[in-house]
Amino acid sequence: MTSTAPGGTPATPDLATDVIGELLGLDAEWEAARLAKPEAARQTQLAYDALFESPGPIDPPVRRGLAALTARWHGAPALVQHHLDRGADPRLVADELPSEPRLRAAVQHLDLITVSPALVRQEDQDLLAAAGWTPDEVVVLSQLSAYTSYQARLLYGLSLLSGRTPTAAAPPPPRTTRGTGRVKSQATRASNGGERPTAYTQELLSWTAWVSPVPVDELTPEQEESFAGKTNGEYFRLLSRSPALLKARTAIDAAVFYTREGLPRAERELAAAVTSKVNDCIYCASVHSRKASQLSKRVDDVQRVLDATLPRDAAWHPTDLTPLSAGQDPRWTAIITFAAALSTTPSTATADHLSALRAHGISDHHLVDLIGAVAFFSWANRLMLTLGEPFWPGTTV
Q1: Nearest one of 243, 24, 50, 267 to 136, comparing CA atoms
Q2: Domains in the chain, CATH or no CATH each
Q3: CB of 370 within 8 A of CB of 334?
Q4: How confident is the model at residue 12 (pLDDT cuts 50, 70, 90)?
Q5: Model-level pTM greater than 0.85?
Q6: What angle do CA 96, 101, 106 make, to 5 degrees?
Q7: Do 67 and 88 meet the contact criterion of CB atoms below 8 Å apart?
Q8: Residue 186 has pLDDT above 80, yes or no
Q9: Would 369 disulfide with which of 262, 320, 326, 397, CB 3.0-4.6 Å?
Q10: For 232-258, b where at least 16 C-beta lie within 10 A, e where not — what string?
């Protein structure tokens, strides 16, 4: 399918390079739509620079190799090749596991947290620590998977929006039994002793880390600045172990969700809740369903999304997304259906999904916002699910 590109003069991020722009290769008019909110693009590149171009606790070839592995799972061949061309360790992208125990543990962990993040348990983090990965390195491993998941959905969604059919790549073969056949835990206690929620809710939840956060009295000024405007709870203090990356991520969050222009914010929050439901992130779904309800005043419609039962396979992938949009009006049906399909691993959104959205008056500039919201929560969910767990506030013993 092709469509008329929106008019306008393209802006450019205030950067020497823009990897997403380079990989997409959009014409000027579609690039203008992508950069209608240039801060999101600028901060996306700054996050890339922090993760791949800056000194860090993991060697650059390993970082790029694990990112290429993640991109392969998401069926993003251009992103795989991008990292290989820039020195990715090819052992980490190969069909066979590397022989070195430390790297083998990392690859097996990336397989699990990329494909089945909701099945990760604290003992999976313990296996990394036993293989010699430090807390700083563990945060980077989760960020490699999560940020690449974000990139892959930007590339897929924006390619689809510009009239292209994204080319999928074959994923690696199954190489580990970790997570395979696991049933989502229904235990009543979280690792901190609090009561773990076992059903979706719009109520306020807390979150506890499996990896040691930076203590409050040990935060550096750079670390504090990296999550300015957020709380200093365990989640942000943990992510502040990579402060430049967290600072860019915090700014992307603001650029995608807190601007007045674009897709109504209630619908951006709805997309975040849908993505969280597909990925089975109860914590993120609670936060963003609550915001969607507050902004839209459609509490029952939002709750209907949370209450939907999604059948899942052994890897915990939904096998039927249609329950998510049951009972919704046509516009929200189109938004929910597209957001869910873009959220899957790999993405399954199609041109027909975009046609349905356009038929309900959603402009291409607003579709860029929708893609950005889904992409960002493909990132956020993987951090929340793989570095800790939610619990009911006030129940810690």
Answers
A1: 243
A2: 27-161 (1.20.1290.10), 206-391 (1.20.1290.10)
A3: no
A4: very low
A5: yes
A6: 70
A7: yes
A8: no
A9: 262
A10: eebbbbbbbbbbbbbbbbbbbbebbbe
